[in-house]
Design goal:
The protein is an alpha+beta fold. It contains 6 helices and 21 strands.
């Protein structure tokens, strides 16, 4: 004989209705909108309530169909506690994981910045784009003495649309990291493939520092080392180029995703023509530009600099170059050697008659 007096739990087990549990996402219809809460008919899953703080920015009305997350499946009063805010976040993390898995490129607009990078929100989840992951076009190239300028440059990017890829996403660790560099990498690699050493390119100076200048060449980062800015001796790169300048340069090497550039090689070396004015054994006049323990450097013409070694200053072996010379003073010397291949000229002071 079949058992007829079934308990509620037994009836639930025999029915097709699955018990809801914390974290489940359910759909329902708004039945009542009150000052502090909203009541929802979840059909076979019963009735649920959403307190105002868990509604988020949504403006609900009766009869509207919504999606919510189960916070508590059954309170003492018999209804479920729901959250639309949590459901949105659940969907957000799921969508972010999909974007990451598909390596999809998305557009974002940073809402704030700090010295480390840009603050971003996508799919309701807040994330971060580190300075190191900015593309060459936006990387804040500043010298060590101008570190405060980094924040100024990053603040200028807030509100702008950037194309990025998700570099790392972890709901467990509440981590969401973006990269603009990765979003442009494929395109940049294809452009790099079309470049070779010796090519002449145009670019925009994005930063000037002590050892040279950074240049954006169609989205590819290039560096003009201080030694490649001019045929003259360059002490301060800022006297030759400034941020925003459009320059022409020659590619002298390609290292992974960076170009090494030369501005000076866009013109002939004036040293080669000016050095023709000097002959071995002749007497010349030059200006002292640097003094070192081993000798002094002498400027003979705008592009030609020579060295008078300490051994060629005097027959006195204890001679001190610092006491013998003063910066910018002019003296006469004898040309000992001219090494055109290595761009060197050796002078003598003691042989001057």
């Amino acid at each position: 004989m079949a058992k007829t007096n079934l308990t509620m739990d037994e009836l639930l087990e025999q029915s097709s209705v699955t018990k809801i549990k914390t974290g489940d996402v359910v759909e329902g219809v708004v039945t009542s909108v009150r000052k502090h809460e909203v009541w929802v008919d979840m059909g076979a899953n019963g009735v649920g309530v959403i307190f105002r703080r868990e509604i988020g920015s949504n403006s609900l009305k009766e009869g509207e169909q919504i999606t919510a997350s189960i916070v508590e499946p059954e309170l003492d009063e018999g209804y479920a506690l729901l959250s639309m805010r949590r459901a949105a976040k659940d969907r957000g993390w799921g969508e972010l994981q999909r974007i990451f898995d598909d390596q999809e490129i998305v557009e974002i607009s940073p809402y704030d910045a700090n010295r480390g990078g840009l603050l971003i929100e996508l799919e309701g989840i807040r994330g971060f784009l580190p300075v190191s992951q900015l593309a060459a076009e936006h990387y804040p190239r500043v010298s060590d003495a101008d570190k405060d300028e980094i924040l100024t440059k990053l603040n200028a990017l807030t509100g702008k649309v950037l194309r990025v890829r998700i570099l790392d996403v972890s709901r467990k660790d509440n981590k969401l990291i973006f990269s603009e560099k990765e979003a442009v990498r494929d395109d940049m690699q294809s452009r790099l493939a079309n470049l070779k050493v010796g090519d002449e390119v145009e670019g925009i100076v994005t930063g000037v520092i002590d050892f040279g200048a950074f240049v954006n060449v169609d989205g590819i980062e290039g560096l003009v080392h201080i030694s490649e800015i001019s045929w003259e001796r360059v002490e301060d790169p800022k006297k030759y180029v400034k941020v925003g300048d459009k320059i022409k340069a020659k590619i002298i090497s390609i290292d992974k995703d960076r170009l090494s550039l030369s501005i000076k090689q866009m013109s002939d070396d004036p040293w080669l023509s000016e050095v023709k004015e000097f002959k071995k054994g002749s007497q010349v006049e030059g200006k002292i530009t640097r003094i070192t323990p081993f000798g002094a450097f002498v400027q003979l013409s705008p592009s030609v600099e020579a060295l008078v070694h300490v051994s060629e200053m005097s027959d006195d072996e204890s001679i001190d170059p610092e006491k013998l010379f003063k910066l910018n003073e002019k003296k006469k010397f004898k040309v000992l050697e001219i090494d055109t291949e290595n761009r060197k000229i050796a002078l003598s002071l003691k042989d001057v008659k």
